[in-house]
Amino acid sequence: MSMRIRTGAVSALAVTALTGGAFLTAPAAAAAPKTPAPALLSASQLPPHPTSSWTAGPVTQGYPAELDLCVHTEGVPSYDYRHRIFRTDLDTAAVQMAVVADTAAHAKALAKHYDDLIRTCADRIEQASPDTTVEGRDYGTLPVEEGARVRGLHTETSWGATDIALLSVGRDDRTVTVVQWSQLGDFADAPVAAFKKTTTKAVNKLY
Fold it and tell me: pLDDT truncated to tens, each residue of the chain (207 aa)?
């Protein structure tokens, strides 16, 4: 079961597992100050793959379904999201999402909201799917702009499918970014040090 595949057991249960209360309420008439669109990662800034090069898709408006395993926008104000999807020739994929909130305070709350969703993702998946075992790990914070945190998630099904993902949330003033890397494997296959460098570059590029 690959995290890059939208169908399958884990992706199907994501819709069921990822429900919850509202995160915050922004005034309906409030307009965010005009801000340049945040820059996203390039293919060369992702953790190097040992046998395949990365290919970057176009920067696209909207929220990426590829993040639905752990992260969602339910209960969040209707901000403008943009994202980029990355692929290799093998079963390794990545995605970055960036969003500009109306205030720095809302961006701080939004970053915490997304990190909380990632932190609690393992429990939600296991509750929704008894045939799935999930372990989450906290790889700590990064000293970049207003901060970033990196976490890992290993998913294994009763029929033996196993996936590893690294996810991070970072913020620069009013802009929040979420980065996800995933492939078949377990924690031993996760390029944590390289992903931390990728996350730092992602946050530094926001403006």
Answer: 344 333 333 433 333 343 344 445 444 434 545 667 899 999 999 999 989 999 999 999 999 999 998 998 888 888 889 999 999 998 899 999 999 999 999 999 999 999 999 999 999 999 999 899 999 999 999 999 999 999 999 999 999 899 999 999 999 999 999 999 999 999 999 999 999 999 999 999 997
Helices 104-119 and 121-128 meet at what angle, rounded to 10? Answer: 50
Burial (CB count within 10 angstroms: exposed 0-12, middle 13-18, buried 19+), residue 68: middle
At 153, the amino acid letter reads L
The two beta strands, 132-142 and 60-61, are: unpaired
Question: Which domains, and CATH codes, for the chain?
Answer: 9-19+44-204 (3.40.1000)
> What does DSSP assign to residue 121?
H
Phi, psi of 172 (to 5 degrees): -130, 105
pTM value is 0.85
Structure tokens belonging to residue 12: 């199907």
